[in-house]
Write a structure and sequence with these properties.
With 359 residues, this protein is mainly beta. It contains 3 helices and 16 strands. The strands form 3 sheets. It has an 8-stranded antiparallel beta barrel. The protein has a 6-stranded mixed β-sheet with strand order 2-1-3-4-5-6, covered by helices on one side. Strands 14-15 form a two-stranded antiparallel ribbon.
Length: 359
């Protein structure tokens, strides 16, 4: 006789066939995504990359608007006998990161980068073969039961080996920054000399902590030295300090995406001069005297990305001067008779800066 299926069992089968989406009828929350894709000859096109994205997540919705969207910039280039792909990820808050993948074929690159992009925009995304499929609904047609047969052993099926993943390299990113720095420098004059500096920096992030960079800057500082002089009262000397600095930085410690600490070493060269005003007690007028400035030092920089490309930075360091020079008032024979300021061999600086950097 045939086997009867009750109404309750049939309804249960229909509910199982529809699954959670079929019962609720609710669409998953959409995640807007903007794609900028470029591949070399023989690579899948942009539509193939978008298809790979949407196969991995039903939430991803590709739009033509960058504002408020996840932005995925894909660039694939030949590398030896294979390909190398770079995925630049910019989230809706304009924070950027980068992933680099190398593989034997361009198709593998597209698949790997699409998976990284999909998981970034939707943490619930999965490989196409891993996505859940809806079970078929239970048929309500009854069929005669087959005759009883001896149970046959089910042959063991070896589990398929997982596909080999392409090699994922640490991200590499070229960047530059520029800004204005204001602070104080010791040793040039008594106390701290007000210093202004303009800087331009370029670097390459090769790994999480390895970020070689070079910083070129020019600075100027000025101050006033007040010196009591016999029969002349107090003489004010205007001090001006001008230098150029070349700094090398190798490491970058980054506790968070927006904050990083970097040590560096530098060499600077320039001049400093002190100019005395006319005084009846000083004949002839000393005028201005410029002297060579050479120094080497170490520095530390703590930078915080505030919003977008805007960065604020706090810097401090120390240096040693190569010349033990002094300002003074010389007599007619050129011999210094009154020392105004003896430049220290060791000094330091502290400053704060505001600048712009690439994402």
């Amino acid at each position: 006789m045939g086997r009867r299926v009750g109404l309750g069992s049939a309804l249960l089968g229909v509910a199982i066939g529809l699954g959670p989406q079929g019962v609720s009828g609710q669409e998953p929350a959409r995640v807007p995504v903007f794609v900028d894709y470029s591949g070399h000859s023989g690579c899948p096109d942009q539509s193939a990359f978008i298809e790979q994205l949407q196969l991995r997540s039903r939430k991803i919705e590709v739009t033509g608007t960058e504002a408020g969207s996840w932005r995925f910039v894909v660039f694939i280039e030949p590398e030896g006998s294979g390909s190398r792909g770079t995925l630049r990820i910019i989230d809706p808050a304009s924070r950027a990161s980068e992933r680099v993948v190398s593989a034997a074929t361009c198709g593998e690159i597209v698949s790997a980068l699409a998976l990284v992009a999909a998981l970034t925009a939707d943490p619930e995304a999965a490989e196409p073969e891993q996505q859940s499929t809806q079970p078929a609904a239970v048929s309500q047609t009854t069929q005669p039961a087959p005759p009883m047969q001896a149970e046959q052993p089910v042959p063991a099926v070896a589990a398929a080996a997982p596909p080999e993943r392409p090699e994922v390299r640490p991200p590499r990113r070229h960047w530059w920054s520029a800004g204005y720095e204001l602070g104080g420098t010791s040793a040039v004059a008594p106390g701290l000399t007000l210093t202004q500096r303009l800087f331009l920096e370029a670097g390459l992030d090769r790994a999480e902590w390895l970020s070689p960079a070079g910083r070129l800057s020019v600075a100027t500082g000025s101050g006033t030295i007040r010196t009591p002089v016999t029969n002349a009262g107090v003489i004010e000397t205007e001090v001006t300090w001008e230098t150029g600095r070349l700094e090398g930085l190798l490491l970058a410690l980054q506790p968070s995406d927006s904050f990083r600490l970097r040590p560096g070493v530098y060499f600077e060269a320039g001049s400093y001069r002190g100019e005395l005003p006319q005084s009846p007690a000083i004949t002839p007028r000393p005028g201005a005297a410029a002297q060579l400035w050479l120094a080497a030092g170490v520095a530390g920089h703590a930078s915080l990305r505030v919003v977008g490309p805007l960065v604020v930075e706090l810097s401090a360091g120390g240096f040693v001067s190569f010349f033990d020079n002094e300002y003074g008032i010389a007599g007619p024979d050129g011999v210094v008779v009154t020392v105004i300021h003896d430049v220290d061999l060791f000094g330091g600086f502290i400053s704060t800066a505001i600048g712009l950097t690439t994402p």
